[in-house]
Design goal:
Order of helices and strands: HHHHH
Number of domains: 1
Strand content: under 5%
Oligomer: single chain
């Protein structure tokens, strides 16, 4: 799971990098930075996910991503088709927010698995 989260973190950093010429790139850099940091923590310092700050920051981030996903949900017909999302920024933004939510949910899964491992070791 640590390797998977590391790959997800790098993917989010790549997404941040391609925002440099976007008109609303700064806000999307922030959107992508949150799961990039969370996934990096899961990969490099997973015990931090069990701390008190992670216990409220991660669910708050997931809730914000859910709201963002509904806000940015693509209204373009067949937004998943390459011909559509390649040309339509709103479709890409909706897909981007779906990816943000996916990465945060994977960090939550990593946290859950880590917590289970520590609980089993304690018994």
């Amino acid at each position: 799971m640590r390797v998977f989260c590391g790959i997800l973190s790098l993917l989010m950093l790549l997404f941040i990098g391609v925002q440099y010429n976007d008109s609303d790139g700064a806000i999307w850099m922030l959107y992508y930075a949150i799961p990039a940091i969370a996934a990096a923590v899961a990969a490099l310092k997973p015990r931090w996910l069990l701390g008190s700050q992670a216990s409220w920051l991660l669910p708050l981030s997931i809730a914000a991503a859910v709201v963002g996903m509904f806000y940015y949900w693509p209204k373009t017909p067949q937004w998943w088709a390459k011909d559509v999302w390649w040309e339509t920024e709103t479709a890409r933004e909706g897909m981007g927010m779906m990816i943000v939510l996916f990465v945060l949910l994977m960090v939550l899964l990593a946290r859950t698995l880590l917590r289970k491992r520590y609980e089993q070791a304690a018994h």
